Amino acid sequence: MVSKILLLGECSREHAIAEAIARSGHKIRLYALMKHRNPGIERCCKARDGEIIIGDFLDPETVLKVVRDKGIDLVVIGPEEPLFRGVVNAVEDVEGVPCIGPRREAAQVEQSKAFMRRLMWKYNIPGRLRFWTFRDVREALEFIRETGESVAIKPARQFGGKGVKVIADFQAYLRDVRSRVKEAHVTKLFAEVSKYTDIEDKILIEEKVEGIEYTLQCFTDGVNVLPLPLVQDYKHAYEYGIGPETGGMGSIMGPGITLPFITSEEYEKSVQIVKMLVEAIRKELGVEYRGIISGQMMLTPVWGPTVIECYARFGDPEGVNVLSVLETDIVDIFEAILSRSLPKIKLEFKNIAVVVKAAAPLGYPLDRKLAQGHIMEIDEEKIVEKGCKVYYGSVDQREEGLITVGSRAVEIAGFGETIPEAAHKVNEILTSSLIRLRDWKLIYRLDIGSRISIEKMIENAEIIRRAYRARKLERYVIKEWIPGKGLITYMYGE
Ligand code: GLY
């Protein structure tokens, strides 16, 4: 039986995990290791006779010391970076303490987009996008000059959701211009990602697909997969999906397990894809993936449900949607993951819609310095009275007040019978004086979860659905560029 849990991380997603642990019926002491003092997580730890420790949770030695000092018997990892740095391997191998979070090898499914794509092709997982990887900038540039494809150019490694450029290339008369844009992006990206030496591939160029994105988060014990309700995340900084990409400015969910624009059949297909990925990881690496695996999915005209990326964790804010209404005891789930008995868990959620919206200081995400060091004033009691919840994120509780650290400062969760109703409640909070910065501005998105945006997505999904159902009956020609061989053409069917 688990009795002392250590949670790693300091953002709103970790606050939601801490809150779910604090609700547990088990006799648990909760500790958390973080770089800045998150008052929400601290409150949860205190409620469970524990405390927070300020320190570098990315460093395996620091984590090991806390595990030893506090006699921890389970470590729960919130964000991805400790996974990539081998924190789970260190805690399990050195201290023999189990973790909720995959070992470094298995976390490659998020760390390396190239690993994930290769796995999909090797194990015949539906939704296989054509892709090309490059370790050398000259090869990537040669590829771009040779092909006139519509592509997505991405960093091959997880790069905080940044660096992705999608370039359509349909008009022959614009090919030279587009090629120059692609070349400039590849050159810039190579320079930026070169600082990472933990994976060899630097750039991934992928066939461009368009469609409706959604996230499927799942618990897994390495063999069994327990899917959660779908959530849709909105990445762009500003209203109506414009501006730079962020970690996510808001997310919508429910009521029920799917979203208004995704059918139950598409949900099941998405679950099947994540299950096949977990099985492929086990076969390929010989390690069992324990923790949370999330498919960043897209409903595409080519495949229907398609994995664009994988997270080896809950999304942020997507994790807040599901955890804020999770009724099953999360410690039961953790114990079932450790004993590989997830099928005995019955996942239950409040059957309501949940909308989460982030508020970040102006400057985020492009100029973090502008977004740092502002005093936040927030009346949590009144926000709760109005039926919403506050999840603290990139803030530091100091003597002088709650100080912004530079990213999404808080996330507000609202609940309702429908998504627009829940969104309206959050908007009322964000536009009130209940949350503000003393000397600066907050940015947030009022459009997320609006009735019009949902109706638009239902219409778009129907068009995409007709396309992928028709294509399923066909076999189609594809072209592939092989380094050193040039373009080859062949056919495949699903
Ligand atoms: N919301 C996207 C992410 O967690 O990376």
Tell me what you see in this structure.
The model has no long low-confidence stretch (mean pLDDT 92). The strands form 6 sheets. Strands 12, 13, 16, 18, 21 and 23 form a 6-stranded antiparallel β-sheet that branches. A 5-stranded parallel β-sheet has the order 3-2-1-4-5, with helices on both faces. A 4-stranded antiparallel β-sheet has the order 6-9-7-8, sandwiched between helices. The chain contains 16 helices and 25 strands. The chain has 3 domains: 4-100, 3-Layer(aba) Sandwich (Rossmann fold); 130-207, ATP-grasp fold, A domain (Dna Ligase, domain 1), CATH 3.30.1490; 212-443, D-amino Acid Aminotransferase, Chain A, domain 1 (2-Layer Sandwich), CATH 3.30.470. The termini are far apart. It is 35% helix and 28% strand. By secondary structure, it is an alpha+beta fold. Helix 1 (12-22) runs parallel beside helix 11, helix 3 (60-70) packs across helix 5 and helix 8 (137-146) packs antiparallel against helix 9 (175-193). Bound molecules: glycine (GLY). Residues 161, 233, 247-248, 311, 315-316, 318 line the site of glycine. The site of glycine (GLY) has 8 residues, from strand 13.
What would you say about this model in short?
The chain has 494 residues and is of the alpha+beta class. It folds into three domains: 4-100, Rossmann fold, CATH 3.40.50.20; 130-207, ATP-grasp fold, A domain (Dna Ligase, domain 1, 2-Layer Sandwich); 212-443, ATP-grasp fold, B domain (D-amino Acid Aminotransferase, Chain A, domain 1, 2-Layer Sandwich), CATH 3.30.470.
